[in-house]
Amino acid sequence: MPRRTPTSTWSRPWPSWRRRASTCPARASSPSTSHSRPAATDPSRAGVDTGARARSAPPRRGTMSTDDDATALRLDRDHVFHSWSAQAHLNPLVIAGGLGSTVWDHAGRRYLDFSSQLVNTNIGHQHPKVVAAIQEQAATLTTVAPATANLTRGRAAEKILSHAPAGFSSVFFTNGGADANENAIRMARLHTGRDKVVSAYRSYHGNTGAAVVATGDWRRVPNEYARAHVHHFGPYLYRSEFWATTPEQESERALHHLERVIQAEGPTSVAAILLETIPGTAGVLVPPPGYLAGVRAIADRYGILLILDEVMAGFGRTGEWFAFDSFDVVPDLITFAKGVNSGYVPAGGVILSEPIATTFDDRVFPGGLTYSGHPLAMGSIVAALDAMADERIVENAAAIGRDVLRPGLAELAEKNPLVGEVRGLGVFWAVELVKDQATREPVDAALMGRIKAGALARGLLPFLADNRVHVVPPCVVTPDEAATGLGLLTEVLAEVA
Question: Where is the composition biased (Low complexity) (predicted)?
Answer without folding.
Answer: 1-16
